[in-house]
Amino acid sequence: MIRAPPSSAWISIIEGTEVTLTATEMTVTQDYTFYVFDEWIVDGGSPTYYNSSVAFDVTEDVIATAHYTKVISVDKTLVDMTCDWPGDCWQLVDTVVVPSDGTTVQSVITPASGWSYFLKASGTYMFWPNQPHGPGTINALADAEYSQRPIDGNWEDLPTHILDIAVDGANIDWGTYNGEHVYYYEYTGTGTAASFSIYDNNYADNIGFLTVEIYECDPNAIPLQTVVNFDMTITVHAWDALTPGTDIYVEDGIGADLVVVGFTASSGEADDFNPGNGKGKNKMSATKIGWTIDNPTVSIDYTLDIVVQTSKNPKGKQEYTSTGEHELNSGPIVYFTYAGTLYMLQGPPVTVTVVGDED
Ligand SMILES: [Ca+2]
Ligand SMILES: [Ca+2]
What we know:
Elements: E1 11-14, E2 17-21, E3 24-28, E4 36-37, E5 48-49, E6 54-58, E7 62-67, E8 72-82, E9 90-99, E10 105-106, E11 116-122, E12 125-133, E13 136-142, E14 147-148, E15 155-156, E16 165-167, E17 170-171, E18 182-188, E19 195-198, E20 209-217, E21 222-223, E22 229-238, E23 248-254, E24 258-265, E25 269-273, E26 287-293, E27 301-310, E28 324-327, E29 333-338, E30 341-346, E31 351-355
Parallel strand pairs: 1-30, 21-31
Antiparallel strand pairs: 2-7, 3-6, 4-7, 5-6, 8-22, 9-20, 10-19, 11-18, 11-20, 12-13, 14-15, 16-17, 16-19, 22-27, 23-26, 23-29, 24-27, 25-26, 28-31, 29-30
Bound molecules: calcium ion (2 copies).
């Protein structure tokens, strides 16, 4: 494991630095070797490169963001967040009415790729009206998974999922029969709208609809004192060849209110350690994860997947115990060598918001 020497040995650069461009010409002192400036600045004229700076012609004062992507980039994203189901974390984000005429309907929201959702299907529709039943007739009903047999009025699960709600064009199993006709299904987002339809072999006699509600965990509305799992991914990408023989070292600090459940590196070696700053009474200390990447190949994503969970605080209560914004860390730092110089690149943090009434 390679550990980073003191940060003072590096030239520090921060991803996403804001630079103010003042009309009509502004010279930015960042070393343009590393920075890429927002595309739209080109509207104000092509940048001019000097020895270690870059100048733009702009017609009015603007604030631009400089991205550090010409040599190497680091990103950190929250790729999923889950809590126990059911629970306060889960919030209704969409309600989809599924007609019984075979039409496919789509969610308004776009479930994020890889994120966890719960679908709640409820209601009944009439799939076979006015069938002989005893001395009279019955309007046979169906719900998301089961349907009534006219001959005895019993609810049964027909083979091949006929009369059920299909999700994204696929027949799914909504589970065991529920007399209230309410079913739940854990769903993973695909990055496109979820679609629903009722599968029948004769739509002409159908009347009514079913309802699908979509629930998700919102990172901007995490309830107090709830166990939450956060799945995060750090992505490192080399845009230019680095100095041969120099490993990239990435370090990520996990807040003291979280515990590391696990991590997996796509390449290289990762390990967690405790910097030892939590020795005092009842003090909780942060964990760090160090990740050494072998010399990176240009234009390949190197990823470190990290799962953390809210921990218990010194009083034994489940975090989070206070509302407001919480940074899951201060952002990953990448240490690397380029053209003989050591650099340290600060990546973005992941921020969540805790809501609720504090005691
Ligand atoms: Ca029918
Ligand atoms: Ca069924």
